[in-house]
Amino acid sequence: MVCGAGVIGASVAYHLSLRGIAAVVVERETVAHGASGTAAGLLSPVAAGEATTPLGKLLVRSAERHRELAEELSGAERYAFAEMGSEVVAMSAEEARLLAELRGTAPEAVTEGGWVDREVRGVVRVEGAAQLDPGAFTRTLLDAACERGARLITGDVQGIRTEHGVVSGVQVSARMIETSRVIVATGPWSAEAEGWLRTPIPVWPLKGQILKYRMPDAPAGAFSGLNGNYAAKKPGGIVYAGTTEEEAGFDLAPTPEARDAIVSWLSKVSSRFAEVEPFEQTACLRPLSDDGLPLIGKAPTFEGAYVATGHGRKGIMLSAATGEAIAELIVTGKCTTVDPGPFAPGRFRGSPGRYV
């Protein structure tokens, strides 16, 4: 049983279906209800300076798997998967130095006709970037899993039943559903499972806001800064621009402060936003862990319990490798594509004030 029909849960269900396991996916709202349906859907390649870190290796594998999935699932037609050009902007001499160190190449002068036309210290052109429609991607994964026998049910997961230290069922609303395997993939709500699993799941919501512009004549591709802000042209001429990182609990209300912060940064990079107003402002909640790394793997308390959450701002990007890794762990007990050790949920055992 997979708890959560966001992009992580859908990826887990799909990769299980490829291995002959038809999962039951439980969702209390709708498929891709949260950030999985409202994120920008940008797949940014890992920087050279990060590629050998545990997270970097996970990102590399996920980028590879995304391209495989696009072939398997007709991604260009079903969820607007497309390669795109991308630039990272250096706004100061110090940012230029950091960018050269991170990307392995010095920033270059901007080119005419592109996104960046303000006074900046240069840009690094990034190879291997891509984008997709995250809501359509999530639904495609889950639809493909259901074609192989998976089932989606609506309900509120309220607890996990164990017998002699082994998972035996999941309480979904008013009924107990028998299962020997459960995967907690409920995004920023994953901490609700701490009591069920008797282990810390220190994941909390990181609010992010996005502005949307109608700019059919905008340049293709995307640009971003070292501070995490970006703008990207989506199919149909809609431009997504963001984003904020706010500790606001589960508040989803868009704010004028966020709008002003995004617009201010955009105006420093590109003149194309000077005469156009955003037609929509959205907010979503990303699941961020206490140490910034996702939780992927077996829960340390009960046999048959797994956790897949805490991906922060990289949930869409990391969904492909995460689903693959969890499916491998369930079927074979080990993972051959990435090393899940650094992401083991048990690393938080013994945290002060939490389950020990």
Give a brief description.
The protein is of the alpha/beta class.
Report on the architecture of this protein:
The protein is of the alpha/beta class and about 350 residues long. It has two domains: about 1-75 and about 135-200 and about 290-350, FAD/NAD(P)-binding domain (3-Layer(bba) Sandwich), CATH 3.50.50.60; about 85-125 and about 205-290, 2-Layer Sandwich (D-Amino Acid Oxidase, Chain A, domain 2), CATH 3.30.9. Helix content is about 30%, strand content about 25%. The protein has nine helices and 19 strands. The protein has a seven-stranded mixed sheet. Strands 8-2-1-12-19-18 form a six-stranded mixed sheet, covered by helices on one side. The chain has a three-stranded antiparallel sheet with strand order 3-7-4, with no helix packed on it. A hairpin with a 4-residue loop joins strand 15 and strand 16 (about 240). Helix 1 runs parallel beside helix 6. The longest helix has 19 residues, at about 55-70. The two termini are about 25 Å apart. About 45% of the residues are buried. The mean pLDDT is about 95.
| Rg, nearest Å | 21 Å
Summed up, the domain count is 2
Q: Major β-sheet, in short?
A: 7 strands, mixed
What's the CATH class label of the largest domain?
Alpha Beta
Give the CATH H-level superfamily of the largest domain. Answer: FAD/NAD(P)-binding domain
Residues in β-strands, percent: 25-35%
SS element count, helices: 9
Order of helices and strands: EHEHEHHEEHEEHEEEEEHEEEEHEEEH
Query: What do the pLDDT scores average to?
Result: 95
Portion of residues within helices: 25-40%
Strands ordered across the widest β-sheet: 6-5-14-15-16-13-17
